[in-house]
Design goal:
It is a multi-pass membrane protein. Its main location: endoplasmic reticulum. The radius of gyration is 25 Å and the shape is globular. The longest helix is centred in the middle third of the chain and has 38 residues. It contains 25 helices and no strands. The protein is 60% helix and 0% strand.
């Protein structure tokens, strides 16, 4: 809404944080800008790490403008970003590229060939792809913040907590992956938007957005649970309302068939991009020899030989997964190339990575425990029991309200799966781009226990907002240098922040900054 000052502040703060991120990661350029001395110092103190990561050779000589783009944005093309940019440039040439889903690289290529087409005389394709990725992620991260705010207003029924959560998203611990050429920003925008539309009752639009999200990241498949729960809860509550009324039973059976058919269609739509991509990989790597190997440039063929990468139909030999009953390349790559599996990461040498994931693990576990102890009966009945407060239309507001239940379950499933089955250090960006719970619970803690945040109404404020002054203007004893932005207000009065507030903001800001320093210099990060 144009009249919502909270939403305008979310957009303004998100744009400022993204601009600051790009400024800090930029490489030092002579006579560029004195403000870049900060990041230039990091580049001197922490040189690029010689990481054993995917790094395909550049097949064309860079021009002057290419070198400038690499200087300014090269820090955002590290680690998995190399895969996305390589796929956008050359397609799924190597087998292990299929671990990265196609929607994001296709979007990057489309912008590079479309909106950035006038720059083709100045920049080679690789530079335009990198520029396209940065522009797209800047847009998606701002849109994701606005979608999270709108979702929070509907679910939490408390505009203040939703506002603070959206601001925290802009300084997310997974910030560097929202800016780099990764699919996290796109996925967060699609997932949060789909959740918001589902809460508003726009099922088909929500299904489309969820389907697109599963074309960006594999964990988008889990979002089918939102449809299952939404339809199941609606039917269960209607059934309880119709109990004892024989006259209403036939319509309920019809509704059951309607619910079942809509769930099947929606879940099929969500799973369709995954299935199509697996089929594409099967045709490409398990089909007959198409002469692709002869068309691959020699440097890329040599890279495959040196690193053991498998090309499509290489030497006429098909990969082992082609002969499986269900030939799913994604699970094969995770198993063989990255050793992903239950408890496989539980090794003493991985202790630093478990420590890296400790803050988000504790925060996610605390969020689930807080919700459970607030209303154990509601959790035990899975929220399928009709209550008087719901009948009267006056459910609780805030983090512990009934509508948050399915999001807590979703976040807990992701947390458990990430902790026990994947490389645990990715938990921060895994949760940070997939679930609103990390931001809602952090905002809840700050709102409830931080004295510097002046008391705000916690009732349902999702109606048309009052004037800007009443919503954002703060007066009174809130500390010096009061600001309309609660995050800025806390930072302005950082010496007065409570220990809990320091822990929450310290986690967000330290990971925000450390991610830029380490990831952009090719050092291991989350």
């Amino acid at each position: 809404s144009r009249r919502d000052p909270h939403l305008r502040e979310v957009v303004r703060f998100a744009v400022c944080c993204r601009a600051l991120t790009l400024l800090l990661q930029a490489r030092s350029v002579p006579d560029f800008n004195p403000s870049l001395l900060f990041q230039a110092l990091f580049n001197l103190l922490i040189p690029d790490h010689a990481a054993d990561a995917f790094s395909p050779p550049r097949l064309s000589e860079p021009g002057l403008w290419d070198l400038l783009v690499e200087r300014l944005l090269g820090g955002l093309s590290r680690w998995d970003a190399e895969h996305f940019l390589f796929i956008a440039e050359r397609g799924y040439l190597y087998e292990h590229n299929c671990a990265f889903f196609p929607l994001y690289p296709l979007s990057v290529r489309a912008v590079a060939e479309g909106a950035l087409w006038p720059l083709q005389r100045l920049l080679r394709l690789r530079s335009r792809l990198l520029l396209s990725a940065v522009l797209l992620n800047s847009l998606f991260s701002v849109l994701a913040a606005t979608a999270l705010y709108q979702l929070g207003c509907v679910v939490l029924r408390c505009r203040g907590v939703a506002f603070l959560a959206a601001l925290l998203f802009s300084i997310s611990p997974a910030n560097v992956f929202m800016a780099a050429a990764y699919s996290e920003s796109m996925f967060a925008f699609l997932a949060f938007s789909a959740m918001w539309q589902l809460e508003k009752g726009q099922s088909w639009l929500s299904g489309l957005l969820f389907s697109l999200a599963s074309g960006a990241r594999a964990n988008g498949l889990i979002n089918a649970g939102f449809f299952l729960y939404s339809r199941g809860k609606c039917f269960a509550l209607r059934l309880q309302g119709a109990s004892g009324s024989v006259r209403k039973l036939p319509p309920l059976w019809k509704e059951l068939l309607s619910v079942a058919s809509s769930v099947v269609l929606m879940c099929a739509g969500i799973f369709l991009p995954f299935a199509l991509f697996q089929y594409y990989a099967y045709v490409r790597f398990c089909g007959p020899d198409t002469g692709l190997e002869r068309a691959v440039p020699k440097p890329l063929l040599q890279l495959a030989l040196d690193k053991g990468y498998r090309l499509a139909a290489m030497d006429g030999l098909k990969p082992p997964w082609c002969s499986q009953r269900f030939p799913v390349v994604y699970s094969y790559i995770q198993d063989i190339y990255w050793n992903v599996g239950f408890l496989r990461y539980f090794e003493l040498r991985q202790l630093p990575n478990f420590l890296l994931a400790l803050p988000v693990t504790l925060l996610g576990s605390w969020a689930a425990w807080t919700y459970i102890i607030a209303d154990p009966r509601y959790c035990l009945t899975l929220g399928l029991e009709r209550r008087k407060s719901e009948e009267e239309g006056k459910p609780r507001a805030g983090f512990c309200c009934p509508a948050v239940f399915v999001y807590v379950v979703h976040a807990t499933v992701l947390l458990a799966f990430g902790f026990f089955c994947v490389h645990v250090q990715v938990l921060t960006r895994f949760l940070g781009s997939s679930s609103p719970i990390l931001y809602w619970f952090s905002a809840h803690l700050l709102q409830e226990y931080e004295p510097l945040l002046c008391s705000q109404e916690t009732d349902d404020q999702t109606a048309t907002p009052r004037s800007e002054k009443s919503l954002l203007g703060k007066s009174g004893s809130c500390g010096k240098g009061t600001s309309a932005n609660p995050v800025v207000r806390l930072l302005q009065n950082r010496r007065l922040i409570s220990p809990l507030g320091r822990c929450v903001l310290g986690f967000f800001l330290s990971y925000w900054l450390l991610g830029l320093i380490l990831h952009c210099n090719f050092l291991p990060w989350t």
